[in-house]
Amino acid sequence: MCDTASRAGLLLETAGPRDEVVKLLPPLTVTGEQLEQGLGILDEAVAAAAGARTLVA
Asked: 42: which residues sit within 8 A by CB, 6+ positions away?
């Protein structure tokens, strides 16, 4: 999932024994628009990892 999100421009990290925790790393100066875009990428990456759909970047 991290690779998929990274290719679409979103930096995130997973943690935990089975990578079950996702850490988002937005800058402190993130705008509302950037946050919406990042959450959209995260949604697509999670769905792609779950096999629900493919990421459109």
From this structure: 5, 10, 12, 22, 24
